[in-house]
Amino acid sequence: MSDKDTGQREGFSSKFGILCAAAGSAIGLGNIWRFPYVVGDNGGGAFLLVYLAFILVLGIPVMLSEFVIGRRGQRNTFGAFRRLAPGRPWWIIGIMGIAAAFMILAFYSTIAGWTLEYVYKAATNAFQGKSSDELGTMFQSFHTQTFRPLMWQLVFMIMTAGIIIAGVKRGIEKYAKILMPFLVLLLIVMAIRSITLPGAMGGLQFLFKPDFSELSPAVFLSALGQAFFSLSIGMGALITYGSYIGKENKLGNISVEVSIADTLIALLAGVAIFPAVFAFGLEPGEGPGLIFHVLPNIFQQIPGGYFFSVIFFILLAIAALTSSISILEVVVAFLVEELNIRRRHATIMAAAAATFVGVFCTLSFGVMEDTSLFGKTVFDLLDFTSSNVLLPLGGLFIVVFVGWFLGASNVRDELTNSGTLRFRLFSIFMFILKFIAPVAIAIVFMNSIGLIKLGGS
Ligand code: TRP
Question: What's the gap in Å between 129 CA and the centre of ligand 1?
Fold first, then answer.
């Protein structure tokens, strides 16, 4: 990326590297922290069904569209739109994405900071012998503090910035490789332990037995927001990554594979969390602290729980890192390519600005708990605005851009590398982009703000 003037851009070096980077972006706190807490907040099984449907009919097509835009535009999210649609206002999508990136990075680093504290707590054996109530109190007294959560947030931001300064190949790819399989393995062990706890059935029922009376317009919107957040789509992170993918790679396969992996890991996290929530008599809807309360309970019940807990929180922090770098990269690629700022400076500026906003997110669990805007704390407001508003809106514009503006022949050309690769289901894909996806997103939106009234209460 530093060689922007020569026309030769740095890119990912192998198919496996691309998959790791894209999956590394998708798989993160969204799967293991946000998914369980949002499922819990939205009543369980019925939400899950809607979520899965959104991944399939909206998530995969939006992801593929982002890759198409990025690889065809060979630029950051703002620049790609300007190049593909010169003189047209589509670049506004890019600006929206950059705004969303700041917001997400701000609150993401709060939670990532919590996971670092939990690495420390696990390593110092702080969970040992504690009752479920005591573990709850422990989390409560940590995350409402001022200094410690801020310190960890800063540490996390510095790590994110450090990787981004190193650049695409040396940074992103290297850090995204090999560690994810370990995380999956640990999650499987935890899921098995969780479903064999006495009282676990209630959790499985909560997760998999839909109660359709729980569905409301707000639940649909949350499912949409969670699907987009978890897949890293709607703000141009995958446009940016798409621009680093070589022409010989099949974008369709990458999108499907990444979406499947992301969804399986979220489900695995759900199966690890909810049986334990019910077994320990906790509240599924307790909010953003859910996993920090539940997981230490599970570790206590596993032989060798000490080692498990240390390794698990380290892996979770790394999963968060491979995601946060994809968020920061959106802003940095923009600053470097459009404003000609040096990569290192761009990274420091963007990370510092996001940290500044992030401080308020972190403090909104403590001293700023009662400061609210539109009835939400800073954290809730940024989370809601970015995940449930900006990402779906971005996704809507992205599919309309690819479906209606870019034109079928350009899209086919990009997906097949000028006819040398096969792309099955092309007409279905275009049909979804043109009609299904925009209409579905628009309906969920208008329904949730009460512009139209469709089912639910
Ligand atoms: N998907 C990541 C996660 O689940 C978070 C993330 C990374 C993201 N890049 C993004 C979310 C871009 C939205 C947009 O943790």
Answer: 35
| Predicted TM-score (pTM) of this structure | 0.95
Q: 230 C-alpha vs ligand 1 centroid, how far in Å?
A: 6
User: Which tokens is 364 given?
Assistant: 């909104």
Residue 449: its pLDDT value, please?
Answer: 80
The dihedral formed by the CA atoms of 56, 58, 61 and 66, expressed in degrees to the nearest 10? -130
Question: Which protein residues touch ligand 1 with a CB less than 6 Å away?
Answer: 25-26, 28-31, 104, 229-230, 232, 235, 237, 323, 326-327, 391
CATH fold of the domain at 3-448: Hydantoin permease (1.10.4160)
Calculate how far, in angstroms, residue 423's C-alpha sits from the geometric centre of ligand 1. 27
Residues 93-147 have pLDDT tens digits of 999 999 999 999 999 999 999 999 999 999 999 999 999 999 999 999 999 999 9
Biggest CA–CA distance in the chain, Å, is 64
What is the model's pLDDT at position 177? 66
Q: Residue ranges per domain, the chain?
A: 3-448
**Nearest-angstrom CA–CA distance, 251 and 359:** 37
Nearest-atom index, ligand 1, CA of 262: 4
Q: Residue 367: what residue type? A: V
Provide the angle, in degrees to the nearest 10, between the axes of the packed helices 179-195 and 251-279: 30
Give the separation between CA 348 and CA 346, rounded to whole angstroms: 6
* Residues 48 and 282: beta-carbon distance below 8 Å: no
Which residue type does 277 have?
A: V
Torsion sign, CA atoms 241, 243, 244, 246: positive
pLDDT reported for residue 6: 42
Judge whether residue 40 has pLDDT over 70: yes
Residue type at 311 in one-letter notation: I
Which of 58, 114, 327 to mutate to test ligand 1, by most ligand atoms within 8 A of the CB atom?
A: 327
